[in-house]
Design brief:
The complex is a heterodimer.
Chain A lengths: L11 E4 L1 H5 L3 H13 L3 E4 L5 H14 L8 E5 L10 H5 L9 E5 L3 E6 L4 E5 L3
Parallel strand pairs in A: 1-2
Antiparallel strand pairs in A: 2-4, 3-4, 5-6
Helix pairs in contact in A: 2-3
Chain B lengths: L1 H17 L6 E6 L6 H12 L20 E10 L2 E9 L10 H4 L5 H24 L3 E7 L7 H12 L4 E6 L8 H7 L5 E3 L8 H12 L1
Parallel strand pairs in B: 1-3, 1-4, 4-5, 5-6
Antiparallel strand pairs in B: 2-3
C-alpha cells in the first residue's frame, strides 16, 4: 500500500458506531487524531461523550505545532431536547451521544452553515 | 430537561452546601477567547477583595490569558450574608490555534509562535480544571458574536454532563451589536444574565446570581 501513489483528493473516513463501540476513550481519540493529522476528514456515525470531547480538545492542544498542525474543526448537530436521552437514562447518568460528528484539520475544513438539520462544510486539499 | 437539570442542580448545590464551611468553592470563568473573562475576573477582584489586585492583564489580542489563575477567598456580600468563592480565570477554549493569526496583531513570528504554544498549553489546562477542579462555572459569552458555535455547544455539554451549576453571562452589552436574546435562544435551558464587565453595567444582578448559584 505504501508504494501506491495517493490520488489527488481528500480522504473521508466514515467510522461506524460499531467500530467505535469496542474502543476505549483514548483509542477513539487516537483514531480520530491520527486520521485528521493525515489530512483526512473523519465522520463518526455516533458522536463522542462530553468527557471524550473534553479529552479530544486537550489532546489536540498538546499536538498543535506551528506550520504543521493547527488543530481541528469539529461539528455535530446541536443536541436537541427531544433527541436527548430518556428520563431514565439521564437519571441513571447515561448519556445519549448518537449525533453524527464531522472532524477535520482546521486548515482544510470550514463550516459554512450549521443548524439542527444540516451541516454544510467546505473541504479543501492540503 | 429543565426540571431534571434543576432538580439535579438543587441536589448538587444542597450537597455542596454541607461542605461550604470547609473551603470556598472554586468557580471557573469559562468561555471562548476574547469574551471578556479576565475583564470580569478583574472587576470581581476589584469589587470584593481588600487590595483589589487584578487577576490578569486584559487585551483585545486573543489568548492573552494562557494560564489558569486563581483569586482566592473572594467574599461577596449579598443581603447581609457573605459568600466566599475562589475565582478561577481560565484561558479561552478553542479547538485550533494558528500562530499566523497573531501576526495580524503586530507580533513578530517568534513571539506569535511562543504565544500559540502557551495558548495551547493554557486550553489543555482549562479543560483539565473543568474536569477535575471546579465546583461551578460562570460561562462568559460576547453578546456581539454568534453564540451558536461548536466550542460553546461542546463546553456547555461537558459542564452539564458533570452536573456543575452554570451561570451564563452575556457580556459586552455596552456595544451596539449586542444581542442578549441570541444567547438566550442558543442556551434556553440556562439562565442568561446581561452585563458589561468593562463598564460595570448590571453587576449587581451578576453578584446576586453568583451568590444564589454558588453560595
Amino acid at each position: 500500500m505504501a508504494d501506491l501513489k495517493k490520488p489527488d483528493g481528500v480522504q473521508i473516513d466514515l467510522i461506524s458506531a460499531a467500530r467505535m463501540d469496542g474502543l476505549a476513550s483514548m483509542e477513539k481519540i487516537r483514531l480520530i487524531l491520527d486520521g485528521v493529522r493525515d489530512g483526512n476528514i473523519v465522520i463518526l456515525e455516533d458522536g463522542l461523550t462530553p468527557d471524550e470531547e473534553s479529552r479530544l480538545i486537550e489532546v489536540t492542544m498538546t499536538e498543535i505545532s506551528p506550520d504543521e498542525f493547527n488543530g481541528i474543526e469539529i461539528e455535530t448537530y446541536p443536541r436537541s431536547e427531544t433527541a436527548d436521552a430518556s428520563f431514565l437514562d439521564r437519571l441513571m447518568g447515561r448519556q445519549s451521544t448518537n449525533k453524527l460528528t464531522v472532524i477535520g484539520p482546521a486548515n482544510q475544513i470550514e463550516t459554512l452553515h450549521k443548524d439542527e438539520t444540516i451541516i454544510q462544510t467546505l473541504v479543501s486539499r492540503k | 430537561m429543565g426540571l431534571l437539570t434543576n432538580l439535579r442542580s438543587s441536589i448538587s448545590r444542597a450537597v455542596s452546601s454541607l461542605f461550604s464551611e470547609e473551603e470556598p468553592k472554586r468557580i471557573g470563568i469559562y468561555g471562548p477567547p476574547n469574551a471578556g473573562k479576565t475583564t470580569l475576573a478583574n472587576r470581581i477582584a476589584r469589587d470584593w477583595t481588600e487590595h483589589g489586585d487584578a487577576v490578569g492583564p486584559e487585551s483585545h489580542v486573543p489568548h492573552e490569558t494562557r494560564r489558569a489563575r486563581r483569586k482566592e477567598n473572594v467574599e461577596i456580600e449579598r443581603d447581609g450574608k457573605t459568600v466566599t468563592i475562589d475565582v478561577v480565570d481560565t484561558p479561552g477554549v478553542t479547538t485550533k490555534v494558528d500562530y499566523t493569526e497573531f501576526l495580524e496583531h503586530d507580533l513578530e513570528k517568534e513571539d506569535a509562535v511562543r504565544r500559540s504554544r502557551e495558548a495551547t498549553e493554557g486550553v489543555a489546562e482549562a479543560m483539565h480544571w473543568l474536569r477535575e477542579d471546579v465546583d461551578g462555572v460562570v460561562y462568559v459569552l460576547d453578546s456581539t458574536s454568534d453564540p451558536f458555535t461548536q466550542v460553546n455547544t461542546m463546553l456547555i455539554g461537558i459542564i452539564e454532563s458533570q452536573d456543575l451549576p452554570v451561570l451564563i453571562l452575556a457580556n459586552k452589552i455596552d456595544l451596539e451589536d449586542s444581542s442578549v436574546q441570541r444567547i438566550q435562544n442558543a442556551f434556553p435551558q440556562h439562565e442568561t444574565i446581561p452585563l458589561s464587565a468593562l463598564e460595570g453595567d448590571n453587576m449587581d444582578e451578576v453578584y446576586d446570581k453568583i451568590a444564589e448559584y454558588f453560595g
